[in-house]
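Reopening this one. Same input as before:
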Amino acid sequence: MKPWMNKVLSVDERVQRLLDAMTLDDKLAMMHGGTPDAALGIPALKLNDGPGGVTGPEEAAGTQLPAPVALGAAFDQEAAYRYGEIIGKESRERGTSLLLGPTVNIARTPLNGRTFEGYGEDPYLSAATGTAVIRGIQEQGVMACVKHYAANNQEADRFTQNSIIDERTLREIYLPAFEAAVKEGQVASVMASYNKINGAHGAENQPLLTRILKDNWGFEGFVVSDFLATQSTVKSIHAGLDYELTLPFKRYYGEPLKEAVAQGLVPISLIDASAGRVLKEMFRIGLFDRAPGEGMVPAEQLTMREEEALRLAEESIVLLKNEGGLLPIGAQGTIAVIGQAAVHLIASGGGSAHVPSGAKGTPLQAIERRAGKGRKVLYAQGTAPVPTGPSFVYPSPLAFLTVPAEAFENGLAALSYDTPDLSGEPVRAETAANLNINWQFAGVPHPASARWTGTLVPQETAGLFTDFRRVPLMAGRRARHR
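Same output, byte for byte:
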């Protein structure tokens, strides 16, 4: 038996014995999602998003829970624990070892696209709710990763904007929920945010990652960067970043970190500390001592958990008394249903937090049934559908395809480049129906650029354009991330 597999030893002893057996490459693999030597018997570290339920493909769908912000409205830690318990159980069944959630950022603007992932604008409520969710997740044998640390509270320029916040405001508004996650929730991991905080990006912010998180709060887990949020190699690891979440073509850890060690810019003690933090949490949560999940949520469990999700939704509803008949609610009249969630089964939001639903019906259908034949129900989408995943994926240059000629009449010819100025040969070509692009999370390398070319055919003519039937269109988009 390998010495680190001896459960009689303390967690720290098991970690140290494993580190002693690992090469530098093995340790670096633990810091960027690589694969250590299989002979070491280290379980695969499988990550999954999941602040509102375990995300994944339709065929492996879990329970679509109410939006986290709705859970916050329940003001109920017991309900929050049950919420996390469902996520934890389904994560374990799916084979997930690190669940990227919960989100405890404070709601500061309604225009923030991630507000639905948190628990509202109150630091105390966010701390109490988030801590209960973490306990529910981790008591099922899955590591939680609280995010996004810190002050990640707006949509505009959220990858680059600088949040300038004094120490008192940080400590009283933006950090209490993270502090509670560490001290009370014993969370395994903390995710560093994209934005700058007082001039330094979250993933290389030494005051936040080391002085406050690890020194002041005594955090013993590991720090993960948000996806593609790492900005440097040497500066990040010295600041306190332990694990880089990224893509192979944009990596600051791995080989660049190995070179930094060879040049004497990063001491091996820092590598041991970061890799050891990851291993310690894996030992603590029990990943070394059990078989991974089967990869699917059992159908019979899914049915029971959907019923629990309904109860959680009911507990989050805030009721208003209709005094004096102010609201036009009665047995007669037309019912207006507005919003994409009425037909798209999106309980919270899209993007990385979207959870597929296995439900057969829609809220609109339920309203129509309840209204009966005697009442008219009108539906309007209201806004464009929330994207549930990337719509413009960047593959390898080998995936270059010839654009069909008809694309210029029907749809748009979409070309992507791995340069910031549309130069060089395109690395991807496809026909796009429209310009509904989820650019940041499409796996596009940065810097990068893309061009969409096509012909718009107006349905009507008027005024000066009476004889102008076909309008050429060319649109370009560049992505620059420093």
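So the earlier flakiness isn't reproducible anymore. For the record, Residues 397-479 form one domain.
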